[in-house]
Amino acid sequence: MNPTGIPGVDELIGGLPRGGLVIVAGGPGTGKTMFSAGFLYWGAVKYGEKGAYVSLAEDRKEFIRNMKRVGYDFDDLEGRGLFYFIEALTLMEAGTAELLNEIIEETISFGAQRLVIDSFSALAQGMREPRELRVFLHSLLSRIMRGLDCTTILIEEVPVGEARIGYGFEEFVASAVIILEKDMIDDKFIRRMRIEKLRGQPVPNNRACYTLGAGFITFPPYKTPALENPRTPDPAPDPPGRYSSGIKDLDEIIGGYPKGSTTLLEIDPRITRDQYRMLVWPHPTNFLRNKRPAVTIPGIGSGPRDVEAFYKAFALLEKERKLARHLIVSESINRSLHDTIIPYDPSEGVDSLIDRIETSAEELMKIAGSPPLIVASMDSLELNYGRDGSLKAVSRIAAWTRRNEGLSLLSDKSSYPELTKRIATIASTHLKLTRRHGCLLLYGVKPRTTLFAVKVETEKGYYETRLIPIT
Q1: Distance CA 356, CA 343 (A)
Q2: Which among 217, 377, 383, 471 could disulfide-bond with 299, CB atoms 3.0 to 4.6 Å apart, if both were Cys?
């Protein structure tokens, strides 16, 4: 297999068949040119492989300018002898044979290891009959791809409203077929790729979301990366007059949280706790880093080990941990208590839990001199107190938060849709976390935002939650 180098693609499919023919098809504006250019660009940058681009649609200057906008510097690669642009617009007028010979001669002379032809659809329009297309493909396969072991991408347009690709025969000789599409989620624009064919390589996940904002980036199924010895990052600063979420990208998107407000994070039931906690955990982490307290009611089944995992994941210092309180169901505690853990018994009723929350918050406020963040997992409240009890707890938390100019975050994988609607009317900020093709996607309902892919990076030595716009 030939690694593409395109972010996320090789993780998804393991690369493309070396020396094979790859069809990249899609409707207008789906990113076919961006994918193909990324294949050449990253092949040169990461692996030192020469790439040639045959264009029947735009001239060299336009191509170079468009690619520079997303960070693909083909001018630099050209100067280093790693990229060659073949303008085939005028060659089309000379006929198929002349065009084919020119492509073959230029590609062989340059010694290309990667080749893109943009596009097969434009090429077909200049030919009199399908037989000429078959001859072109046969010659391309035998003389370039097999002779040079050159991996070749043919770009094809999928007509609007049609499902078929091209002319019906190229799919059969291709080693791989990749379809790029546009779709909608709750009136939000999304892009997705389908792997229709990949010879000699199993593809457990044949669909993935992608974006074009900074070049072609694919999002394989979400997985939190491992980090053995995380270091302690600096706290994120608060936006003026507001609280930071602890996630830089989220602060930039929504401008932080108003003081005294409640935030609802509505979570798709298919999303696991391990997946969504990298959106939740940065909130109390940043409060503690800023010497502000945090009170949490973790999700169903949580215990002291989960608290320790939280502390360890973000390398929280002992002095920071002292400003935290975690309310955990008594039966989940089977060892000596850490002083930050407060047990509660659901059989005592929701008022008893509310008293513990408010007492803990007020004690910490006296110690720290600032109001706390209260984080409550709705699944835990609903299991232990039902719909009415949960609504009462949420209303009291929101009232205490507003009164003391703190912040509360409700993470909601609700079994009661009507309860979620009620909570949404209380919340000043309403975010939704969903999933498509294994990719976690976040967007704002209040304030309204576009769609963002959730990604966790560890390059800086700590967990950093990134939100990448789907554009």
Answers
A1: 9
A2: 377
- Using CA atoms, how far apart are residues 203 and 200, in angstroms rounded to an integer? 10
The two structure tokens encoding residue 155? 């770009």
SS3 content of the chain, % helix, strand, coil (to 5): 40, 25, 35
CA pair distance 49, 40, nearest whole angstrom: 8
Q: How far apart are CA 287 and CA 372, in angstroms?
A: 8
Query: Does the pLDDT of residue 446 top 90, yes or no?
Result: yes
> Residue 352 is encoded by which pair of tokens?
């008893």
Q: Which of 317, 228, 243 is nearest to 283 (CA)?
A: 243
pLDDT tens by residue, 152-201 = 999 998 865 555 666 666 677 789 999 999 999 988 999 999 999 998 88
Q: Are 23 and 171 in contact (CB under 8 A)?
A: yes
Using DSSP, state whether 338 is helix, strand or coil. Answer: coil
CA distance 209 to 136: 33
Q: Quick one: DSSP state of residue 345? A: -
Using CA atoms, how far apart are residues 192 and 470, in angstroms rounded to an integer? 10
Mean pLDDT of 271-295: 95
pTM of the model: 0.92
User: Using CA of residue 300, residue 293, residue 246, residue 448, what is the dihedral sign?
Assistant: positive
279 in Cβ contact with 263 (< 8 Å): no
CA distances from 332 to 43, 281, 308, 378 (A): 52, 20, 14, 17
Domains and CATH numbers, the chain: 9-219 (3.40.50.300), 242-469 (3.40.50.300)
Peptide bond connecting 119 to the previous residue in cis, omega within 30 degrees of 0 = yes
Q: Using CA atoms, how far apart are residues 263 and 373, in angstroms rounded to an integer?
A: 11
Contact 221, 205 (CB under 8 A): yes
